[in-house]
Amino acid sequence: MIYLTRQALASGIPGPPALMLLAGFVCGCGLGLAHFASLARNVHLLVEGRALGAILMQIARLIFLGAALFALALWGALPLLGAATGLLTGRHLVLKRMAPPT
Questions:
Q1: Per residue of the chain (102 residues), what is the pLDDT tens digit?
Q2: Residue 69 phi, psi (nearest 5)
């Protein structure tokens, strides 16, 4: 079993740059899908008048997203860049799915 020290995480886990970028992109897509899909649920809570639930959900969404991006930043710049791109891709997919038919 491999144990990573904090210094190893801070310096970035070595690996092929393309693989690190792809791993970040996949993580970012998952984060984007989860984050923006839960935003719709958050809006429904607000509309239903359940403000406390909406506020707690908003805080949880932001903490989860921030923690995931922080972990990716510890991995290195390429995974973080891939995650940012994946996050925007996930946002696009959620908005496309929720758009009214034209």
A1: 344 555 555 555 567 888 999 999 999 999 999 999 999 899 999 999 999 999 999 999 999 999 999 999 998 899 999 999 999 999 999 999 988 877
A2: -70, -35
Q: Where are the domains positioned within the chain?
A: 18-97
Tally the residues of the chain.
Answer: 102
Cβ–Cβ under 8 Å, residues 87 and 28? yes
| Dist CA 89 CA 24 (whole Å) | 12
Single pTM value for the model: 0.78
Could you write out the DSSP letters of every residue in 28-78? HHHHHHHHHHHHHHHHHHHHTT-HHHHHHHHHHHHHHHHHHHHHHHHH-HH
